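Most newcomers find our protein records easier to grasp once they have seen one. Sequence and backbone structure share a record, each on its own labelled line. To make this concrete, we reproduce a full record directly below:
***
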Amino acid sequence: MGKSRTKRFKRPQFSPTGDCQAEAAANGTEGEEDDGPAAELLEKLQHPSAEVRECACAGLARLVQQRPALPGLARRDAVRRLGPLLLDPSLAVRETAAGALRNLSACGGFEVCDDMVTKDIMTPLVALLKECSAGLDSNEMSPQEKKDQNRNSIENIANEAMNVLWNICECSSRAVSIFNKEGCLEIVLKYLSRFSTNVDLAISVAYCLQTVTEDNPELLNSFTAPALHVLESAMLSPVSSMDYIQLKTLVAGTVWNLKDIIPSKSQAEIINAILKILSEVLEVDAGEIVIQMKEAETQRLKAAAETEEIRENANGDHLIEDDEMEEIPHKGKVRRKTFISDLLPPTDKELREAIALLTAQQTALEIIVNMCCSEDPSDDEWEELSSSDESDAFMENSFSECGGQLLSPLCLSHEVHTAFTNYLIPKKIFEKTAFPNSIAVDLCSRSPTWKSLVRKMNTIQCRALVCLQSLVSLLDVDHLGGAAALQTLAQHLSQLLFSQPDFAKHVDFLEAISSALRALLQTMASKNISQCMTPDQLMTLCTAGIHCSNTGVRVNVVSILGITGSVLAKEDGTLETLKTIGCFLLEVATKDSSLVVAGEALDALFDVFADGKEAERASVQIKLLSALKEFQPVFKTKIRKEGRGKYSPDQLCVLDNVKMNLRRFVAYQETVEKRLTT
């Protein structure tokens, strides 16, 4: 029903312990609904002993990962009871309380986060963030030993609190409003400015900033020149480790969100700086990095085991006596007693680096999609862009000019299209659409701690396909490499699709690749570029896709049939294929449970049988007119009865348009049938 639109990507909620439901299932606790542990833990939050309170918070941090436990925690007012502990006299209690709220906000979803705002979690949370900020300042003058110990604790607390803030702001517009009113921007930017000494805290801040700066004009007015320079420093950091790559990518996304306040003379340099970062991120072969990191971990663990064995032999397995140590049964090792480590799974350096890179690449692709979804172009507002080294020093004189005349939002003008090409963005996105490195997938699949990376690699492929859809829809054919490049791309997508015998089972992949194919075939048809999918391939895709539970997939395959059918209708010798397409679309239009899919199928029928001798003959032979006449009142009734309750105003507007076009098309088919049968 018209041109397909690419969805904007919202930042995903972060779960510090991985998939919450999977965690519960793994622990055998899925389906349990016992308030006993919750009641006992919540009671201990009031205990006079800080160690007991810390232990209770750590227990709640684990408990909230079990989805069935959430209603019981809500009934017992867990948020109001945990909130005051964010300001507990004990730093350890503050950290574990923040960790419990972090897990709760990550695992609970939108309803839980909104309820947390209703129960005024933002008041102690903002107070904690302010105290941490002040504490970091005061520590600058402390003796070295005390400074290091306190700063680490305070920064750890700030990191947990920032994740709570990010999760809540992601889910609640009220939380974002409080963020604006309480002046949280200054606080979090102070944390970000410490990126050189605590990149983990800076990454948490960058995630939060990317969330709160999206569609938030009130906050944009708070960005002063010094604030923008903090972003500049982080974005242009020369450090190239994986966590810094992730940080710079997130900050680039934030800077893109600030496009409305960028002075005119700086816009060209800024877009170049953003695209340079995204290009460099996508340049990295993630599969090879995963393989290297996994091998490095294997070697490190092997060396550590050998060293431990030598030490045990030398010491005769005698353990150190220390009140702060406890023995791990059957291991012969010692560790510090701690509850903090219970909040997060143990994550080794190599795994962290691999996750950071994959996350950065996913973020980069999402930023590109969001750039493609900007407002309507206004070409005159752009200075000439180039891929020169200007992007390395783009803000020396630019962000300080924020008081000057500002332009309307940046958008994908001809110059931006050129910048995409100069930085090889289409080529790098094309490369990311390939299936993940099979060796990397195999290595990760055989390791419990690395297994989640397989899903991350698959997600990158899907994001790249969505990115490809956006670029194909927006860029000129020349910027995409010309007609030959589009044909090569079509062959590549077909090979991706049909190399997987069970592609219909992978819904995310099927939605992404069908969206990309839809946009590509539409562009090729509009430019009269010959298409390369055979009728058999086409029907295989559509037959599998139309039975998918995902409405987007069904809409895509129906649209693909309409695009291909409208091309075939103008060619000779296509009668049988057109009849097959017509019967398929007619069945979808009359039987699909979704009015959106049915409307798309009708739209496709209009396109296929609008013109051409073969199309006219096919329409008569499949009795298209009588079928549509019979369905016309049914479709009208369905819109009236189901429309307002199930569909958005925009969808209803499109459906009304389809209903009107159906009446016109029936009249046209009556003239066709009369002419061919007399």
In short: The chain has a mean pLDDT of 83.
